[in-house]
Amino acid sequence: MDERLIVRQATEGDKNAFAHLYTMYKDPLYRYAYFRLGSAEDAEDAVSMCIVAAYENIYSLRSEKAFKSWIFRILHRCCCAKVKEQSEAAYRAAEEELVTVAADSDRLSPELSEAFSVLSDEDRDIVLLAVIAGYNSREIGSMMSLKPATVRSRLSRGLAKMRTFLE
């Protein structure tokens, strides 16, 4: 059966046609997501999110011949969302770890002081403002004239450096 005809039927609400499209594209979608995310579970999640979004928005597809690029754009956005979710989870875990260590004492342990010494002054300020003072990346960015995304990435790298040093 012609792919364009199947896409047209799917855009008109034919669930079986959409299921056929899913069958045609599930393997390449999964492979893309797997190599983008590096995890089978995350790839499955991203493909599932993609398929749901595609099914809910298939009516907005303007051209039958654009289906392949359209669905891969959706998958790309789903993978980006998954990467963002992963980095936020890692950020929260590192932040919780540092707060726990810092809360145990009013003074920093010698090990933690040494771990701070591996950071540049600006990165140390970012870590302290985020973890100890409780500011978010937007607030820190405003204080230090940095973009919030820059603050988040430097905070993540700084905490990773400290974690590596402490291990």
What brief labels describe this structure?
single chain, 167 residues, Rna Polymerase Sigma Factor, Chain: A, Arc Repressor Mutant, subunit A, 2 domains, elongated
Provide the CATH topology of the largest domain. Rna Polymerase Sigma Factor, Chain: A
**CATH classification, class level of the largest domain:** Mainly Alpha
The number of helical segments is 8
Mean pLDDT: 85
From the coordinates shown, what is the CATH architecture of the largest domain? Orthogonal Bundle
- Work out the strand percent: under 5%
Residues in helices, as a percent range: over 70%
Q: Which shape, going by the Cα principal axes?
A: elongated
Number of domains: 2
The number of strands is: 0
State the fourth-level CATH superfamily of the largest domain.
Answer: RNA polymerase sigma factor, region 2, helix turn helix motif
The oligomeric status of these chains comes to: single chain
Distance between the termini: 59 Å
Order of helices and strands: HHHHHHHH
Reported for the largest beta sheet, the result is: none
Low-confidence stretches: none
Structural class: mainly alpha
Radius of gyration: 23 Å
